[in-house]
Amino acid sequence: MVLEIFLLILGLVLLIYGADKLVEGASSVAAKLGVSAFIIGLTVVAFGTSMPEMVVNIIASFSGNSGLAIGNVIGSNTINIFVVVGITAIIRPIRVLSSTIRIEIPYSLLAAVVLFFLANDMLIDGAEASILSRVDGLILVTFLGLFLYYTYYSAKSDKYAPVTQVKERKNYISLLMIAGGILGLYFGGKLIVDSATEIARSLGVSDAIIGLTVVAVGTSLPELVTSVVAAYKGNADIAIGNVLGSNIFNIFMVLGISSVIRPLPFYPAANIDIMVAGLASILLFAFALFGKGQKISRIEGSIFVIIYMAYLAYLVISV
Q1: Is pLDDT above 80 for 62?
Q2: Of 65, 216, 242, 244, which is the most exposed, with the fewest CB atoms less than 10 Å away?
Q3: How many CB atoms within 10 Å of residue 13?
Q4: Own/partner pairs for 151-156, CB < 8 Å, 24+ apart?
Q5: Which of 196, 219, 259 is nearest to 52 (CA)?
C-alpha cells in the first residue's frame, strides 16, 4: 500500500510538470503560426491528454475487459465536463467562443449520441446481445476523420486573433516541450491509474466502479491539470478546447480503435452513464449560450461539481 501511495504522488508530479510544459509549448506554437490557442487545444493538447485513455483501453481490449474499456471512456467524458470544466471555471471563469457553442459542443454531444445508437443492438435492432463491433469502430473512426478535417479547415481559415502575451520559443524547443509534456502526462497518468486501481482493489471495490470512477478520474487528471494550468496562465481557449477535443477523441478515437482491435460487449446498464455524459454536454451548451457574456461562471462551475458528486453517490449506492 505504501508503494502504491508513493507511485500515486509521483504520477501526480509528472502530470503537473507535463501539463505545464505542454501548455507552454502549445501556446508558443500557436503564437508563431498565428493559429488560435483554441485550435491547438482542440487537437495537439486534446490528443496528448487522451493518451492515458487510449493506453488503458487498448490493454483492456486485448484482455477482453470491455467493462473497463467502455466505463473508462464514458466516465472520463463525464468527469471532463462536470469536474474539469467545473473546477477550472471556479478558479477562473471560462470564456466560450461562439464557434464552440455552434460546433464543438454539439459535436461532443453527437459523440455520445452516436455511441448510444451503435452500442445498443438489443434495444434498437432486437439483437440477442449488444456489442461495439469492428464495423462500429470504423464508423467511430470515420467521425473522428470528419472532426479532424473540420479542425484542419478551421486552422486554415482561422479568423481568431493569435495568442498574445505568450513567450515565443525556438521551434525545436517548443516541439520538445510538447513531446516532453505528452510523455509526462502519459507516464504520470499510467502511474496514477495503476497505483489507484491497486489501492481500490485492496479495499474491495468492484471493477465496474473502478472503471467509472478510479480509472476514469486517473485518466482525466491530465485534462484537469492541463486546463487548470491553462486557466492560471490566462489561456482559457486551451482549457475549454482541451476538454471538448478530449471528449471527442475519447469516443471516436479511443473507443473506435479499441473496438476495431477487439469487439467490445456492451451492457445496457451503461446507458445511464452515456445519458449522464450527454447531459453534461447539454448543460455546457446551455450555460455557454445563455450565460452572461458566453462564460462558464464560478456558480455554474460549482453546479457542475455538485452534479458530479451526486452522480458519484448514485454509482456507489447502485453497486
Answers
A1: no
A2: 65
A3: 12
A4: 151/39, 151/42, 151/43, 154/39, 154/99, 155/35, 155/39
A5: 219
